[in-house]
Design goal:
CATH class of the largest domain: Alpha Beta
Largest sheet: 7 strands, mixed
Shape: elongated
Number of helices: 9
Strand order of the largest sheet: 4-3-7-6-5-8-9
Number of strands: 9
CATH topology of the largest domain: Glutaredoxin
Strand content: 15-25%
Helix content: 40-55%
Number of domains: 2
Oligomer: single chain
Order of helices and strands: EEHHHHHEEEHEHEHEEH
CATH architecture of the largest domain: 3-Layer(aba) Sandwich
Radius of gyration: 22 Å
Structural class: alpha+beta
Amino acid sequence: MNIFVPIGPLSIPLNALLVLIAVCLALWIAGREAKRVGVKAETQVWLALLAGLVAARLGFVLSYADAYLAEPMSLLDIRDGGWNPWWGLAAIWGYTLWVAYRRPAITRPVVKGMSTVSLGLLLVVALATLPTGANRPLPALPVTSLDGEAASLPSFAGKPTVINLWASWCGPCRREMPMFQQMQEQNPDMHFVFLNQGEDAVTVQHFLQRDRLELSNVLLDRGVEMGHMLGQRGLPVTLFFDADGLMQDIRLGELSRGSLAQRLDALTVND
């Protein structure tokens, strides 16, 4: 399940918000317990959290090593949402056990803090297993092809389908396009649909020619109906539908090759 919480003009994923709340709560609980027993544990709590953060990223990167080796700098871009919570939990508790062995006096506050973080992470993992957006189907919106012919999004049902909402003025959208082109070529068993938001055919064709992109299924959503339906103002947004045409995932923001590969794998499993 992916839920986005609106904060002013921006949206933040609920899972990221829950992790942030869990971290803040863990720091407060650990600090209160440390003060109660008369010790200082702040540094060790932060180090445990840092160990979990690094391990969670490393675990994900290693799972999709080929994708990240193709673009080495992308492994530093943590905005792609690529994390492995199990590696993170293992590192957190490995470090906590080391603290318990080396500095028994501060064990209690560190354990309480890390227990709070662990519960938050487990809640996020549990929420991720729930259906996305009530498994909404491919929407029957008024979209057209570049030649002006009416097109139907539900017609893509039958294969797993990835719909990328983009615009030529959007920098992250432009950065994603070469990767999406390669993924489209490498996955003929999936539909990739590039649903432009609010621009006309001339603008889109000029962009494709200028950037030498050869994409199939480039469609126009002149009224930005998909964005309105989702309640999303920002771009890019990428939607993932299974072969039955039911939404399984949604990603707000730029994807890396690794984080896209993860979601394509999930579609294949669900198929």
